[in-house]
Amino acid sequence: MGDYHNNQVLWTEILPGGHHWSGRIQKGAVLQLKSLGEHANVSLFCVNSDNKLERYNMPDTLKAQHTAYLTTGNILASDLGHAMVSIVKDDHGWNDTFCAPGTVQQIEQQFGRKSFQDARNDMYRSARESLLIEMTKFGLGTQDLSATVNLFSKVAPDDNGNLSYVKSDNTNQVIELRFEMDCLVFLSAAPHALDNGSEYAPADVQLSLFKALPLGNSDVCRDSCPQNQRAFQNNARYYALNLTA
Amino acid sequence: MTALTNLSNLVLSEVCPAGEAWMCEVKKGQYFRIVDLEGNQAVDTLFISASNPEERYSATDTLAINQQIYLEKGTALYTNFGNKIATIHDDNCGRHDTLGGACSCESNTVRYAHDKYPMHSCRNNYMTALSQHPIAKKHGLNVRHIGPNINFFMNVPVTSDGHLKFDDGISAPGKYVEIQAEMDLIVLISNCPQLNNPCNAYNPTKIQLIIREGEEA
Chain A, 79-138: which have a CB under 8 Å from a chain B CB? Predict the structure, then answer.
């Protein structure tokens, strides 16, 4: 614990299973997500808080790092060639990038429907509608929502490209995201699009914020490939004045 | 070219030169064909609903709904609203990519080197079209409407352990793919100018675009 941050919690809160959250996370912060139950999913979308048109770009992220999923050592790249987020710790080992946030139709088909009138705050929510609620607070909408990273969820292809959802016990698994840009972050803890469970039971997730330690001579994400090094160099240009501050 | 053989009810047939942007509108039920005239040409393609541009082709919804990574004959293409936007009606290439996205000056700096920034790119083609093309202007399109695209004729295998590879194309001169529109749609294409990897066999070439009426028309 604490390899990439100083281990002093700046704030912590529970994101109850199925619920959603948004906020600004600054460059130099580490957001820790800890699954408090068996079966977690957190769909994440983020944009540059200073330029909301700059957003997480799934294809640019995948092709730069020659991977179809994200884990420790990977970055989330923006469509303008910047490193937005570094995954500095990942107990789960495979975070889905290409299955979109779960939709109302998918949730209803798999789990049925529970409205607020039926279940008050235990109503069934979908990741897509939840992310749109949070994004709309910041003036963003459907045209801005692109691919998400679906943390704690694994979807693996076979040799013919057929996808299957791989269930695992997420209890106490930790994922730590170090922010390389000031971002608006949108989270939903609703079930994954391909969750094939028999009941709607997404785990609660504990969010905690820490201050990142300065990057060392060899960094787990920046130096995992030359592509990431060049993305960090683009960040250094973007924040050029910060270097002399 | 042989591509026009046996095609009836033609609405449009145009050639897009190597490395350029191209747009058209396709009505529901019409067929839209892209012909790889000289082979191994990646065609970065976006489909956007003509009635509501907030609704567009979504690579991630398509993959999740189909539970399949590759696009091929018979594949339904879905929007970010979960609706069918088009179906791949005919294809003699075999497989198309939708994970690789479009190249850009910015991603080229990350993938290759900072001095690649001035090279022409698909995203620049998209920006050219968004800023100038009458169809983009008519529908009020802007950068917010650009999502992950389809790369027709591009071969990006994903291994079962999650590794993404960029292989030589499996296309060849005269190979084509044809979609049938499931709603009125806007087509935005970048005929990919990438010279840094084998997606165009290091030799971007021209493509042919054909619209024809559906059989019932």
Answer: 79-82, 94, 98-100, 103, 105-106
Residue A198 contacts residue A49 (beta carbons within 8 Å): no
Q: What is the residue whose two structure tokens read 């997480």?
A: A56
Q: Answer for the pair A4, A213: CB distance below 8 angstroms, yes or no.
A: yes
Per-residue pLDDT reduced to its tens digit, B73-100: 999 999 999 999 999 999 999 999 999 9
Using DSSP's 3-state secondary structure scheme, residue A225 falls into: coil
Contact at CB, B110 and A66, closer than 8 angstroms: no
Residues spanned by the domain of A176 = 11-244
Cα distance between residue A114 and residue A120, in whole Å:
9
Question: Measured between CB atoms, does A194 come within 8 Å of chain B?
Answer: yes
- Which pTM does this prediction carry? 0.96
- Spatial distance between the Cα atoms of A70 and A44, rounded to a whole number of angstroms: 12
d(CA B60, CA B43) in angstroms, rounded, equals 19
DSSP B115: G
Characterise A112 by phi-psi region: left (phi > 0), alpha (psi -120 to 50), beta (else).
left
Question: Which burial class, exposed, middle or buried, applies to A35 when counting CB atoms under 10 A from its CB (0-12, 13-18, 19+)?
Answer: buried
Low-confidence ranges of chain A (pLDDT < 50): 1, 245
C-alpha to C-alpha distance for B3 and A85, rounded to whole angstroms? 46
Q: Does B104 reside within a domain?
A: yes
Domain that holds residue B181: 2-212
Distance CA B84, CA B127 (A): 26
Give the count of domains, chain B.
1
Residue A138: count other Cβ atoms within 10 Å of its Cβ: 15
CB A148 within 8 A of CB A98: no
Residue whose tokens read 């999740």:
B64
- Total number of domains constituting chain A: 1
Decide if A15 is inside a domain.
yes
